[in-house]
């Protein structure tokens, strides 16, 4: 059971997301066996482009971007599997996701994912985003890992 950590350069070698939509700054824990599990970090700053409109006088990270950050953390873990290299990860669904705390500039968002199912390129992961051990969002995300068009 090897645990790894990855910096932003390594993350960009694994997943296709880029600024302004790359929402994971570091992977602090990564396990591929016996279960696929990862912990990521997103440092939330006032310089994020979405704060220009959400909301200028009361900046709050949009919930959908918290979920996207969780999905990207899961993506890093899933794309580390040899059979998924060079493929594209796609979000396919959300189950029973709840938001419990606002995320604001200055927060460090901890992104935890644990795969609960992975079969034939389709998967589910239990996810939790937290700030200082207070849950911001939790639930289950679903995803597919597919061949890139033109590369099949």
TrEMBL record:
<keyword id="KW-0444">Lipid biosynthesis</keyword>
<keyword id="KW-0963">Cytoplasm</keyword>
<keyword id="KW-0443">Lipid metabolism</keyword>
<comment type="similarity">
    <text>Belongs to the thioester dehydratase family. FabZ subfamily.</text>
</comment>
<dbReference type="InterPro" id="IPR029069">
    <property type="entry name" value="HotDog_dom_sf"/>
</dbReference>
<dbReference type="GO" id="GO:0006633">
    <property type="term" value="P:fatty acid biosynthetic process"/>
</dbReference>
<dbReference type="Pfam" id="PF07977">
    <property type="entry name" value="FabA"/>
</dbReference>
<dbReference type="InterPro" id="IPR013114">
    <property type="entry name" value="FabA_FabZ"/>
</dbReference>
<protein>
    <recommendedName>
        <fullName>3-hydroxyacyl-[acyl-carrier-protein] dehydratase FabZ</fullName>
        <ecNumber>4.2.1.59</ecNumber>
    </recommendedName>
</protein>
<keyword id="KW-0441">Lipid A biosynthesis</keyword>
<comment type="function">
    <text>Involved in unsaturated fatty acids biosynthesis. Catalyzes the dehydration of short chain beta-hydroxyacyl-ACPs and long chain saturated and unsaturated beta-hydroxyacyl-ACPs.</text>
</comment>
<dbReference type="InterPro" id="IPR010084">
    <property type="entry name" value="FabZ"/>
</dbReference>
<keyword id="KW-0456">Lyase</keyword>
<dbReference type="GO" id="GO:0016020">
    <property type="term" value="C:membrane"/>
</dbReference>
<feature type="active site">
    <location>
        <position position="54"/>
    </location>
</feature>
<dbReference type="GO" id="GO:0009245">
    <property type="term" value="P:lipid A biosynthetic process"/>
</dbReference>
<dbReference type="GO" id="GO:0019171">
    <property type="term" value="F:(3R)-hydroxyacyl-[acyl-carrier-protein] dehydratase activity"/>
</dbReference>
<dbReference type="GO" id="GO:0005737">
    <property type="term" value="C:cytoplasm"/>
</dbReference>
């Amino acid at each position: 059971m090897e645990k790894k950590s990855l910096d932003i350069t390594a993350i960009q070698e694994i997943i296709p997301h880029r600024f302004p939509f790359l929402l994971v700054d570091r992977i602090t824990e990564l396990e591929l066996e016996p279960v696929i599990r990862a912990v990521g970090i997103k440092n939330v700053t006032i310089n994020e482009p979405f704060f220009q409109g959400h909301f200028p006088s009361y900046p709050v990270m949009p919930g959908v971007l918290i979920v996207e950050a969780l999905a990207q953390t899961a993506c890093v873990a899933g794309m580390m599997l040899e059979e998924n290299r060079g493929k594209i990860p796609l979000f396919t669904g959300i189950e029973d996701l709840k938001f419990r705390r606002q995320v604001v500039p200055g927060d460090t968002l901890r992104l935890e994912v644990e795969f609960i199912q992975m079969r034939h390129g389709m998967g589910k992961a239990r996810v939790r985003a937290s700030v200082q051990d207070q849950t911001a969002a939790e639930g289950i995300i679903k995803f597919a890992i597919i061949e890139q068009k033109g590369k099949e």
